[in-house]
Specification:
The structure is a single chain. The protein has one domain. Helices cover 13% and strands 18% of the residues. The chain has a four-stranded antiparallel sheet, with no helix packed on it. It is globular.
């Protein structure tokens, strides 16, 4: 499971983004998404800072943030599925979508998004994945395959609000039904 080498400038910009995403301890009690955020397509947003939860920071970079803070589980694959290509970080995503990864050896790995739209696999759950792989998001009979190949499991590295590099045009999402 090799990861590509990143240029120093890319790392610097990602690091600055992560400090903003990971550094806020937030306020408020309880764990979960809060309703009534009209800025989010789902109407939900996370505002509990780094309170540990599988629902935390939808759209954020789970793999890098957990590594940087040294807290929480380690993930091999992680990301968020949205109803929109340009959703802001911390907006709730699409619950119940399936992410299907088919690796270079035709092994299939699946995950289902939680109530925040987050999906993830620990290194133990992802044991055997060989990259590059193909991947698609499936919801309510609709599929959205990734164009190109998945080089490694950090989906949020490319699938940001505005997209990253030339490969991703925005968030992972499943287009709405007819």
């Amino acid at each position: 499971m090799s990861h590509p080498n990143f240029r120093l400038t890319l790392l610097a910009s990602l690091g600055a983004s992560l400090l903003l995403a990971c550094g806020d301890s937030g306020e408020g009690g309880g764990v979960g998404l809060l309703a009534s955020d009209d800025a989010c397509a789902s109407g939900l947003s996370w505002n509990h800072g780094n309170t540990g939860s599988e629902q935390m920071h939808p759209g954020g970079d789970c793999i890098k943030c957990h590594g940087q803070l040294g807290e929480g589980p380690t993930y091999e694959v992680a990301g968020t599925v949205y109803e929109s290509l340009t959703e802001e970080d911390d907006c709730g995503g699409l619950e119940g979508a399936t992410i299907e990864i088919t690796d270079i050896n035709n092994n299939v790995f699946t995950m289902t998004t939680n109530s925040a739209g987050n999906f993830f696999m620990t290194p133990e759950q992802a044991e055997g994945i060989e990259y590059p792989a193909t991947v698609k998001a499936i919801y309510d009979g609709r599929e959205n395959p990734m164009i190109g190949f998945l080089p490694y499991g950090n989906c949020s590295d490319c699938h940001t609000r505005n997209g990253n590099w030339t490969a991703a045009g925005g968030r992972i999402y499943v287009p709405p039904g007819e």
